Amino acid sequence: MEQTDLVRAIEELKRTSKAVILAHNYQRPEVQDIADFVGDSLAMAQYAAASEANVILVAGVRFMAETVKILAPQKLVLVPDLNAGCPLADTITAEQVLKLKEVHPRAAVVSYVNTSAEVKAVSDICCTSSNAVRVVRSLPHQGIIFVPDRNLGAFVERRVPEKKVFIWDGFCPTHHLVSAEEVAQMKGLHPRAEVVVHPECVPEVQALADFIGSTSQIIGHIADSEKDEFIVGTEEGVMHALRKVAPNKQLYLASPKMVCPNMKKNTLEKVYAALLSRQPQIDLPGEIIDRARRALRAMLEVKP
Ligand code: CIZ
User: Fold this and answer.
1) Which atom of ligand 1 lies at the shortest distance from residue 42's CA?
2) What is the CATH topology of the domain spanning 89-171?
3) Superfamily of domain 178-253
4) Which of 48, 103, 130, 255 shows a CA-CA span of 20 to 30 A to 181?
5) Residue 94 CA from chain centroid, whole number
6) pLDDT in tens, 59-102
7) Does domain 3-84+263-283 have CATH number 3.40.50.2300?
8) pLDDT tens digit sequence for 186-217
């Protein structure tokens, strides 16, 4: 099918099946453009929970669709490709978290949203890259077990020095693809540009940044800034949203290598096929949903 026919067919299926499509900021431009909502994983899940639609297609990676299912368990949650996983989330299992709890029994477990539903189910509270610092500060515990991203964990540790943070050694392979040397080179080429990076980047890259934030925070920062040139250190899908909110600004991706192969598994063809067949669906055991929801709700209760 031609792209325009595919888009028309998806619109028709959305209407007849009363479905909504949520897309993460890292999705392909054409997938973002067909979505009812584009944002980060937390905003996607909040949108889904408040939505009246019974069918939610999540164009992102698996943990994002699971988060939607946990917060809106009565809804049918579809994904374009079940194999779109997250290597960072795969670095830790629920059993490994339980072992960490045995070693640090008085510490609270803070799990980044980039984790499986099973890991969330054994966590005290979740966090995103937007609110990790706030979540950790909100806890009465002196010790924090932070999983699974070591760079986000170190970012939190630098901002909350009064706590002892035990950090898991996971990382996002896509955010590790940009080096400090590359960012320094880009700064040399564009000396007037501000450097904005995601906290999943290595500390040496973060040290060169003028602003560090989640995808939504990066988009908000660039849209609101009076500056007109930016070097952007996160997955390249965010450039599409940035070009929409800041059409007159000069935007340079920090490295052409920052492309997540899992995020790019979702195509318009797969979105169409999933809506048509109502497959693949995200299904989770009720007990995991209930326990993981406690950790997600605890995060949602942290004051902004
Ligand atoms: O929270 C998310 O969706 C992730 C994984 C990154 C971000 O900053 O949007």
Assistant:
1) 1
2) Rossmann fold (3.40.50)
3) NadA-like (3.40.50.10800)
4) 130
5) 20
6) 999 999 999 999 999 999 999 999 999 999 999 999 999 999 99
7) no
8) 999 999 999 999 999 999 999 999 999 999 99
